[in-house]
Records
---
Amino acid sequence: MSDKRKDYISWDEYFMGVAQLAGLRSKDPNTQVGACIVSPDNKILSMGYNGLPLGCSDDEFPWAREGETLETKYPFTVHSELNAILNYRGGTLEGAKIYVTLFPCNECAKAIIQSGIKTVIYCEDKYSDTPGVIASKRMFNSAGVRYVRYQPTGREISIRL
């Protein structure tokens, strides 16, 4: 009998890797964010990335970050967390975890709380000083949603497609 392989990836590496891979589907030229929702028993329930709603052409809507509101991406894009929640076609997300590559904004925080997700594992928090992220943390704290920064292992994983 041989010993099992010892260099397999952890659950956190696996799910954050799936979130990062999902983010690569985003057409946004500046920010690619991915999310992966996982059940308490480590089954992937849903994934999402930031992009336009179904039926809206990626070529007909703006991707600019600055300018008149309707000439920017902001009123049109759906964030990865909300996309993952809306993409879920099963029952409840009660007690689930969400792995996300960027800390959720206040609008996504509301959806996370309302959906029953209880843990947020995030990679980056580059907007930590903004009112939206401050509001997110305040709501998470009040609603009992844990948020934990993902601890990168430095492991490099290559996928040949």
---
Amino acid sequence: MNSVIKWGIIGCGNVTERKSGPAYTKTDDFKLQAVMRRDIDKAADYARRHNVPTYYNDADDLINDPEVDAVYIATPPDSHLHYALKVAKAGKPCCVEKPMALNHEQCVIMNKAFEEKNLPLFVAYYRRSLPRFKQIREWLNNGLIGEPRQIRWLLTRTPSPVDIAKRYNWRTDAKIAVGGYFDDLASHGLDFFIQMLGNITTAQGIAVNQQGVYTAKDAITACWLHDSGVTGTATFNFGVAVREDVVELYGSEGKIVFSVFGETPIKLITNDSTEEVFIENPENIQLYHVGSMREHLLGNMQHPSTGSTGAHTSWVLDKILGTL
């Protein structure tokens, strides 16, 4: 790679405004060189506000721009495979937003394309790189709760006004996300559990649509088994009156309690004491994820979220939803 790695973004929408886009300009040796959006006026506006030299309304133009060294795909998941294959053909490293693709089968195709070109493929499961979640893994790896036994997650949300009004939302369109917000949100937590406790060897679930306000599933229960022997259970519901996000990781000598999305203190509870630690997330939440991509591309480390790990998470999602 060049000493300065120039990135292009396909799909410079809301997720790139604060969560991810600025991280590419704040990371040493990275530069945000070009952005693409189908609406050329919106692409131009984004480029102006974020000091990006080049903008396009055609993804092919961005992918094949000789000034672009690597590509970040930040579109909805139904187009990830289409664009990723073009990036692989162009011979450039790629980062894909999560979930990685529509299903595990597409993830396998995507990985094969990059493996054949010996190119890195990253997936934006950025919690694997955040200090907050590194602290949880450190407590676990240091044996502070003894042998891990069981993990349990409750994630509930109140109905979205957009969904109640039955306005279109790709996140609840079954053609793009069979599990609705489960695909979009639960994937983050399950991916972190896999990093922390090992790959999942078997998973199953019940998925239904209770509200009837969109085509995707909105209520899911799940259970699974990690290759470390840890069992897992979870309840997800996106149409109830109370918002909750609580994970309890039980061990033989204590437990760790945390939230996947809330910035609440993480708790280490043992028979002797309770310790609470607050670790603030960065302003641009993908900052550490992007920084780890830099270290990977420079040959200094293995990035924790790759096409391989992202595909495994998609396999778990498919198994829970009963689509695989």
---
Amino acid sequence: MEKDRVTWEEYFMSLALLSAKRSKDPSTQVGACIVDDDNKVVSIGYNGMPRGIKDEDLSWNKGEDLDSKYLYVCHAEFNAILNTRNGSALNGCTLYVTLFPCNECAKAIVQTGIKKIIYLSNKYENSLETRASKKILTLAGVKIEEYKGRFKKVILK
């Protein structure tokens, strides 16, 4: 029975993976889950368009000029931070995220006091944004760990 029980890390990453399923991004669905020291979920988020804007009103393409999703999409970590009722509640928390944070999200993570990141994928690790993110997080003393749990995806039927 004990071998079937999920660890806290597996549980929280599964919540991030499930949250990612809410994203309408056709190429990269990302989810995040923020947890406090008592293993209580503080907030969750996924990548999506800003509140009040219909998903179909803006492009989900990687296009150019105003036709690029990168100009509009709020990242999962950013949404999870913004979804909290009390920003100070994030001080000392752990962020579980399905994709390593970009440099912009790294700044928000540091500013809110999140002290640890557990990430599932780092498929953009050689990009300038990810390298800058790692530098920001390291300089700020945020612990960074790759997820080592058994579950790497959530399948909904």
